[in-house]
From TrEMBL:
Annotated protein name in UniProt: 5' exonuclease Apollo
Domain DNA repair metallo-beta-lactamase per the UniProt entry, residue ranges: 218-305
One cellular component (GO) term of this entry: nucleus
UniProt keyword terms in alphabetical order: Chromosome, DNA damage, DNA repair, Exonuclease, Hydrolase, Nuclease, Nucleus, Telomere
Taxonomy of the source species: Eukaryota, Metazoa, Cnidaria, Anthozoa, Hexacorallia
GO biological process, one term: interstrand cross-link repair
Organism: Acropora cervicornis
Amino acid sequence: MNGAVIPNTPIAVDFWRVRRCPHSRIFFLSHMHADHTAGLTSSWNSYTIYCSVITKKLLTAKLHVKSELVVGLPLYEPVTINLDEVGRETMTVTLVDANHCPGSVMFIFEGYFGRILYTGDFRFCDRLLKYSAIKGKQFDTLYLDNTYCHPKCFFPTRSNATTTVVEIIRNHPQHTIVIGLHSLGKETLLYDIAVACKCWIGMDPSRSETMELVGMPQVFTCDVDSTRIRVVSFQEVNKRNIDLWNSKEPTIAILPTCLYVGGSNPYENVPNVFVVPYSDHSSFEELKAFVSDIRPRKIIPIVHKHRLSADENPNSRVNMNIFQSLMEPSSSQKFSVPPSVECFMAPEMKQDVKKRMKATTKLGIRKVAKSRKACGVVFLPSQEECEEQKFCGWANGDFEDKENTDSERGDGVAKEIDIQERHDSMFSPMKNDRESGSGVVADNKGVAINDNSRDKVGSVYFILKEGFELMVPERKRVIELTKMKKY
């Protein structure tokens, strides 16, 4: 998982393991790639997620996260967010296009902690340095995409890589073209191929839906047999499938990726497979140019696990000292966490906030109801008593269906009750009697088994004296058949 919890703040970016970030309350998502959404599922109900408008569309459509928990923020406009419950402490966040994939953004946080730039995954270009949110600003901390932070990681611009892909396609006019891609990313490359080759791009319905969500032009089709260029999953491009495809018709595969730059290429000896160094991440030289212009006081790497070449030091890509000469000298400025923010970040506050959120949902209400402890006298019939009373209730006709009308019930009162298989029952005086301290003894009349019940759950027939109510034990199944009878 490529994310971060920003120390001494309630902020977490691309980090969804809530048990490992007990002080985080404000969550941000930079983009929808799987390595940045690990742990984020449709069951998310912890806190609000802030992201770009496009990422919100993808998040709710693909991962089915509740729309009311996701806030889509505009690009290049500072937005104020509370850092506590009382609104005493705030911060501003500005989203900047990360030039990585549809909806991907950088975050600029400004508050009591200083000014932080979180790049997420990004591809450097000169345009980034011209944005007013970045240009001329001093950043205390830079969270940097260090995917290709190594001198060996040199590759061409995306424009040059696109030209290479188009040339390969044009040099194979009689071949079917298979392009291996991951689920999100390189949409612009596909569009450029379609325009240059004047050909529809075939793809599966799921990817086509993604294209529609991100607003790509209509140059794609789900009828893959109607065009000679189609998109498949990156993992589908292997020697076995290449042989299978070529047994039917001449086929070549193109993998636009820099994954193997600086290391070994597993497709080097696989015929009809072309690996083109096309990347949505910054090269090492581009990272240096970016850091040189930003000149942050401190750099923290975002990516901690890499695919390394055999002769590469495991720590080489996370060692930010390589940029030391390009950074602003650190003044060792320290900040204190405001008391209201400390309170907001406290673990007990987290529980209170989550309880209040859950109380507004049916699920939350159900859980609260289950946690209530019953009060009163507990009657625990012995096994012998249970066997003796097993048939008395139904034999005497003392049970009626809940759907009967009030007139059919006579003076009885129908209630939903919960019973254990051991036939526990609980009684206590009604509220008014409890407050006055009065109380009398209640009798447990008998137990019967409903043989027509699908779950074979025990039902209890009670005689309650006036002024008593039935208390429901926790975690029991609801039984719909019972009747109160006067004697």
